[in-house]
Amino acid sequence: MSLTGTPFFVTAIVVAALAVLVPLLVWHRVGGPAVVRGAVRILMVLVAQASAVVVVFVAVNNANGLYDTWGDLLGTDSHVGAAPNLGVDGTGGRSIAKEPPVKQAFAPVDDAALGTGVMVTHLTGRVSGADGEVYVWLPPQYDDPAYRDKGFPVVELLPGYPGSAKDWFTNLDVTEQLRPLMVNGEVKPFILVAPRTSLLAGQDTGCANVPGVVNADSWLSVDVRKMVTDNFRAETAADGWAVAGISAGAHCAAKLAVEHPDRYRAGIALSGYNDPAAESDSITAGDPVLRRETNPLWILTHAKHPPHTSLFLTGQPGDGYEDGLALRGAAKAPTQVWVQKTGGGHLNVVWKPLLPEVFRWLSGQMSGVQNMKDSKSPKGERGGPRPYDGGVRGPAVQAASGGDARGER
Question: How far apart are CA 409 and CA 406, in angstroms?
């Protein structure tokens, strides 16, 4: 029985109800010596309490997408078959473009909580040695004959830790929010890709390559990327790719975007952080070298050349905002950094309403197919819909180029 499925949730509720009802019915009918009667009654109370705790846990887990499977919850699953040393670029010296195509079979997801049109496949990474489920959603224009020769931009969606690959679909309603905006030409018709990021039992990978442990970076930036371009009409160049994340996934998004400008043109980080030690279960935080070298701020300031990438960072004071300002302050052209102050906590209900805004911004940063309604829309710097302005675009660009303006809200 699936941990996140409705049958298990209903079963937990029924068991909890019975665990309360049974003691009420038999409390005075328990026989035997006083010690036995007392022990039985205490046991019934404990079972009732435990059943109630299970119901609350299942409800919270389903609402927040913390654990996807029993293996994730119990810490018995590992999605790492091997973790060879893949070198600085994470490819192990391979020319990925010359590798044989990765052909996958996709099945529709039979779960109304994810919305309509979501597909899933299980991918075994040829380069990273990692494996896991990858969810894919195609935009409304994908099957339109007018777009049959077009390449579509792609966004990888990363959850927090612990977190399910389904999180952006179930808790942020990303497809239901973006579908009408795509149809209306307000945002580009993105292919949305949500890969598993929980690769190690009870540990946050930080989306890093750690030889002998996990190659989470290469799983996301090489294996998943190649699988998508081999199976869909997706853009292959960096200009057509972005990565977005929440919480620990936001840390990953910023890290991947600044570390791999040859693979991603933009990154969206909602309530993220720079220092991996912000996540107590991070495998990179315990090693001083890894902790330093997987910090997006360190990567940005130590890059041989400023990366050609754009970042949209949100957070509230003490929860990502200062980290965003630090990245913006360190950015030099062509790196561009937008920072937006938020409030309300570290919660899905805070991030969810931001999606239309940030995807409008993202549409102005990326190449790829243009919505046929774009000709009626204001034009941005890449010919698509104008990126979200909100009073931050101009100042943020100046700050990213070494100016003194401040673009926070």
Answer: 9
